[in-house]
Amino acid sequence: MKIISEKLTLDELKGMAVxxxxxxxxxxxxxxxxxxxxxxxxxxDLEAMLLDAGSKQNSLWGINLYPDIPGDDHIExxxxxxxxxxxxxxxxxxxxxxxxxKIIAVVxxxxxx
Length: 113
Known about the structure:
Blueprint: E1 2-4, E2 8-9, H1 10-20, E3 25-30, E4 35-38, H2 43-52, E5 60-65, E6 75-76, H3 97-110, E7 111-112
Parallel strand pairs: 2-7
Antiparallel strand pairs: 1-4, 3-4, 3-5, 5-6
């Protein structure tokens, strides 16, 4: 598990995918600090690591990254940590289009394509 505050190469991301799940990497995005935590069995482990590093709960969103799929389609908005009725998000996805755009922007900033 690690927090990406600079750049992660696509090759590094592919290596993580192969080692753990084969085709995907679980990640958590801090949309306010523009950080990306990657490479864990559970989104909740990445969430806990970011919280310990000073992130705020309402800024964290779980995603899956599929490094072999080109473009923004490699991002899947699907995680148990996204279930937040208090933020009007009642599913595993990210229901707010504006928030999805923020997440995509952070991933673009942190993952070198």
